[in-house]
Amino acid sequence: MTPDLNTVLKDALRLPPEDQRELAQKLLDGTRVRRTRRGDITKFFGTFDSGDPDSANNDRIDADLAREYADDHEPKP
Fold first, then answer.
1. Phi and psi at residue 73, in whole multiples of 5°?
2. Stretch 25-41: mean pLDDT, rounded?
3. Rounded to whole angstroms, what are the CA distances from 38 to 45, 57, 59, 74?
4. Residue 65: per-residue pLDDT
5. Beta carbons of 58 and 66 less than 8 angstroms apart
6. pTM, whole model, 2 decimals?
7. Helix (H), strand (E), coil (C) string for 6-25
8. CB atoms within 10 A of CB 44
């Protein structure tokens, strides 16, 4: 049988403050997402070559974005 949340909370509040802190810490530790680093991705920075020497042109990128945002993306007849 699983106790309901209110029963657990009432019982937890009866604990001494130091035990309440320990319980809270254990609960928080159990909910944190643990991520493991598999490596440093910075080794890949700048390694993509699109073949276009002007691909980093911010004005052209802005124009491309503006054109796409303005397009309603409806099929053309």
1. 60, 25
2. 74
3. 16, 33, 36, 43
4. 92
5. no
6. 0.36
7. HHHHHHHHCCCHHHHHHHHH
8. 9
